[in-house]
Amino acid sequence: MLIQGSSALVVGGTGGLGEATVRRLHAAGARVVVADVADDKGKALEGELDGVRYVRTDAADEESVRAAVDEAAGAGVFRICVDCHGGPAGGGRLVGKDGTPLPLDAFRTTVEHYLTAVFNVMRLAAATMARTEPYGEDEGRGVVVTTSSIAAYEGQIGQLPYAAAKGGVAAMTLVAARDLAPAGIRVVSVAPGTVLTPAYGKAADQLSAYWGPQVPHPRRMGRPEEFAALVQHLCENDYLNGEVVRLDGALRFPPK
């Protein structure tokens, strides 16, 4: 698939992973719509990068996502949807040391943001993408890239809601790819390990010192630009489909 001239929607496009992806796809020639709730950052990207548009978007809300998808469809031939949005991640042990069970609302909120919202974006983006004209000899129409986590496989103590949500994202990948195969739409997911993003602020050095030595090679945390580079390849390689790709330097999370 050619990124040049295609329209792309990046949900969570003002975050560390998202902004790097926006910049990468823009540099590759896509018309990019940034969907997020950080208005200042979104408008700054819109002002800096020619052809980039910002749409305030709640990934868990149907009408909000539909409006962002419509914006992307209006910007050009809608071929690419990348979802790397964040949100609150409730945590804690299933049963605390004092015998208190993990609150149900904390679990529900995390799953709503990190799984249900991903499903919401995927279904609405794919429905619009399916109406585009196919390209190439394989008659593809586009790709949906989601973001899982290595916590889906080695969730740490206290990460149960987050691990469940990201595990759900991983599990949806193959099924969604099979569902959308008749429409020529691929579905792939990235499962990052520890990625150092600007969101960590002053804690970045401490996190890097803690996690860096635990990564087999290279012995450092990941970079948002590496996530974005992988997203570009997933878009361009039409034979990558139904797969969850770990991006972790061979890191495997310990229990805690």
Automatic annotation (TrEMBL):
Which Gene Ontology terms cover its molecular function? Answer: electron transfer activity; heme binding; metal ion binding; oxidoreductase activity
Q: Where is the Cytochrome c domain?
A: 69-151
What keywords does the record list, in alphabetical order? Heme, Iron, Metal-binding, Oxidoreductase
Q: Name one Pfam family in it.
A: adh_short_C2
Q: Does the keyword field hold Iron?
A: yes
Entry's InterPro entries?
A: Cyt_c-like_dom, KR_dom, NAD(P)-bd_dom_sf, Sc_DH/Rdtase_CS, SDR_fam
Q: Tell me which family the UniProt entry assigns to this protein.
A: Belongs to the short-chain dehydrogenases/reductases (SDR) family.
What is this protein identified as?
Answer: 3-hydroxyacyl-CoA dehydrogenase
- Tell me what organism the protein belongs to: Streptomyces flaveus
